Amino acid sequence: MSLPDFRPLYRKLKKEELVEALDFAITRSHYLLASWMSTLLEKHPEVKEELKAFMRKRGRIMGEQLLTEIDPSIAWRRDATTWWECYRRFLDPYIKGKIMGIKLLELTPSICRFRFTHCAFIKGWAYATVNPEDMCEILKETERGLAETINSNLELIEFYPGLARFESYCQLTIKLKQ
User: Helix, strand, coil shares of the chain as percentages rounded to 5?
Assistant: First the structure.
């Protein structure tokens, strides 16, 4: 069975309509993912630690790749600004596609603090009528793994999952240990 070809329909849509359709699809798919994950974690709570370890490893692998893609003078520093450049590079397609909105609050060599002002992924988790904090707890290990790859003294000190609670933002802070 072949899938229907939606390209003729997509060509007729305006850019804003395409963004809305993509946002809707991602939100609904993550609604299903969070529902499935909630059931899995209820029946097998030991899996949570395995998932967190997997996401942390994924963040490390992603960090190694992203370090080769950013300006070498920034990559060489291995501080919070390096983390931000790598993370922004990773998120760039999502930001351009309006799947995520980000507001940088503070960026120095020792600290990076920013907010997700919109995230279709987390919105889907919030709609799932399950505990979206579980999904956020697992996901934040990606950011932690990325930080560890850049510098073992970088640590994730804040991950506030506000969007998962239908609040106006999520906040994340990476800090360089002194």
Answer: 65, 15, 20
pLDDT tens readout for residues 135-147: 888 889 999 999 9
Look at residue 1 in the predicted model and tell me its pLDDT: 65
Question: pLDDT tens digit string along 65-90?
Answer: 999 999 999 999 999 999 999 999 99
C-alpha pair distances (Å), 127 with each of 21, 32, 75, 131: 17, 9, 38, 10
CA 144 – CA 4 distance, rounded (Å): 40
Question: Residue 139 in contact with residue 170, Cβ under 8 Å?
Answer: no
Instruction: Say if residue 39's pLDDT is above 90.
Output: no
Alpha carbons within 13 angstroms on the beta-carbon side of residue 176 total: 17
- Angstrom distance (rounded) from CA 111 to CA 18: 36
pTM recorded for the entire structure? 0.78
φ, ψ for residue 76, nearest 5 deg: -65, -35
**Distance, CA of 152 to CA of 146 (rounded, Å):** 10
In sequence order, the β-bridge partners of residue 155 are 175
SS3 12: helix
